[in-house]
Amino acid sequence: MDANRIALVTGAGTGIGKAAAIALGEAGFTVLLTGRRAEPLDAVAAAMGGRGHAITADVADPASVAALFEAVQQRFGRLDVLFNNAGGWSPATPIEDIPLADWQHVVNVNLTGVFLCIQHAMRLMKAQDPKGGRIINNGSISAHAPRPLTGSYTATKHAVTGLTKQVALEGRAHNIACGQIDIGNAETDMTAKMKSGVLQPNGQIMVEPTFDAAHAGRAVAHMASLPLDANILTMTIMATSAPFIGRG
């Protein structure tokens, strides 16, 4: 692979973002890692050797996103892959009791942040030479089936699916591919509680199986490594015994 292919990963300091950044580096990409905290980003970049470059940014802040993409253009001159991974959640709450501030926080990170990054990426990919690139959005199995008491998270992940399809449609004329990876129970800080048990739709608390996040990272790298005349529109990777199929 051309070592000058540039990938940007949001939320790259931990979890799935970290795994994807490492896998993309191993696949031959130069990877720009971004997130709000410098320390974990710097640690991942150091582990990647010359393949990783860290820059802090907050995807929920329009000015921060604009500065991030300006830095990409100034430093590398192009962007071949964007992995929209940064995300957040709020405490488990009945939908009628979700505080507006919690709702807006999740929407700002999970949906508006993805939207802002997509806007800047598409502008850059349409203008660069050669034109085109790939956008991969981190959905969730919650983009298909909700968990109890997760209204804001579920709503945003369903919305990300709509954005994925819209970008896939609008990108056709500009050699921009767009796909979504839906991940179920990759072992990260976010899923640590699954080992002690999480609420199920029938009201029971059940321990759920997880899988090594490195597999999700390599799945992202596989999607990213395809030629632009091929696209994985949706991929689901999950713990084999996770209670997703038949949830509810």
Automatic annotation (TrEMBL):
UniProt-listed Pfam families: adh_short
GO molecular function, one term: oxidoreductase activity
Gene3D superfamilies found in the cross-reference section: NAD(P)-binding Rossmann-like Domain
SUPFAM superfamilies linked to this entry: NAD(P)-binding Rossmann-fold domains
Record's keyword annotation contains Glycosyltransferase: no
Keywords: Oxidoreductase
Classification via InterPro entries: NAD(P)-bd_dom_sf, Sc_DH/Rdtase_CS, SDR_fam
The keyword Repeat appears for this protein: no
Family per similarity comment: Belongs to the short-chain dehydrogenases/reductases (SDR) family.
Protein name as it appears in the record: NADP-dependent 3-hydroxy acid dehydrogenase YdfG
